[in-house]
Amino acid sequence: xxxxxxxxxxxxxxxxxxxxxxxxxxxxxxxxxxxxxxxxxxxxxxxxxxxxxxxxxxxxxxxxxxxxxxxxxxxxxxxxxxxxxxxxxxxxxxxxxxxxxxxxxxxxxxxxxxxxxxxxxxxxxxxxxxxxxxxxxxxxxxxxxxxxxxxxxxxxxxxxxxxxxxxxxxxxxxxxxxxxxxxxxxxxxxxxxxxxxxxxxxxxxxxxxxxxxxxxxxxxxxxxxxxxxxxxxxxxxxxxxxxxxxxxxxxxxxxxxxxxxxxxxxxxxxxxxxxxxxxxxxxxxxxxxxxxxxxxxxxxxxxxxxxxxx
Length: 310
Prior knowledge:
4 strands
């Protein structure tokens, strides 16, 4: 008596599966057509592995497959497609709609799976993405504690620690963005300074007709900006702002041909703009120092916790 192999078979819709015991590939096709009520000639259908769509035509290959292998029967013009599951990935895009209950179930299963990983080995937290960490933070503390078999107090401390980690990463991102903006602005200023230096010494001094009590450091380019721009302080480099602030007000009046009050207002605007830029640099340094301080503090906490565990 030939040995029977236990298998299961379904059609392309996967709505119904049947278990069968067969001794050959031909017998499997025959029984599959009968159970799935397919009237096609068994020789005209195609049998594939439900898992990955591998076509099974060779009898020896069929016999090498393990028991309880699931097959899919495809009729003419039908093609194998992967199963559609609620997994938080692209499978959702293949569906017409996903109910709120399904979403809640998926989220619930997600944080429970993450909790099981931490229960097995707390070091698994190093392999988790920021999205996974946020999922653990948002999980109900008492339920998370029960899943990890820890007390609520320790679980709450774990969630707080994870939140600090995410906050630190966000601060580092913001610091990096501010630093990039600062370096870009510095690069533009240096480029402008190089162009001005290359333009010749004729633009480095004010026309000798300017009458002042001392020598002027205003360049022709600087005077043109102060005359033409409605808010000239925004177009000046830090060095040029300092030149305007330190310049004698009478020199500005003579060079720009404006009233003294307007010249004073211009100096004040330049001073405010320079202070604003310096404040931004201080914020950058402060964020960097804060980030380093928090990192040191968390490292100390981790060391202390490791010692307590030992």
